[in-house]
Amino acid sequence: MYVCMCEAVTDHEIRRAVENGASSVSEVMACTRAGTKCGACRAEIAELVDAAAPRSCRRRLGVIHETPAAAQMSESSAEAA
Fold first, then answer.
1. Distances from the Cα of 56 to the Cαs of 23, 53, 81, in angstroms?
2. In angstroms, what is the C-alpha Rg of the chain?
3. Which class for 32: exposed (0-12), middle (13-18), buried (19 or more C-beta within 10 A)?
4. Domain limits of the chain?
5. Per-residue pLDDT of the chain (81 residues; tens, 9 = 90+)
6. What percent of the chain is helix, strand and coil (3-state, nearest 5)?
7. Burial (CB count <10 Å: 0-12, 13-18, 19+), residue 22
């Protein structure tokens, strides 16, 4: 779905920008150009950033696919070192 009609930016592109590290509306604007013309889409960009942020933060920290057992093993390894 198009979020920014002026720059033809979709919600998928905005989510991808957040997954790649954009953590604010201004950072998404810099990455995608969404919201840089008339600004009418900035509220929707903010909603997408807020909705995607917890998931992307976990991805940047590398814990998306980590199981509880793997997390315990990582902690044990760190304590042993």
1. 9, 5, 29
2. 17
3. buried
4. 2-80
5. 999 999 999 999 999 999 898 999 999 999 999 999 999 999 999 999 998 866 555 555 554 444 444 445 445 444 555
6. 60, 5, 30
7. buried
Could you give the CA distance from residue 57 to residue 39 in angstroms, rounded to a whole number? 26
C-alpha atoms less than 13 angstroms from C-alpha of 35 in its C-beta half-sphere: 19
Candidate CATH numbers 1.10.3720.10, 1.10.10.1100, 3.40.50.10470, 1.20.59.10; the one for domain 2-80: 1.10.10.1100
- Site of tokens 């009609």: 5
Residues in the chain: 81
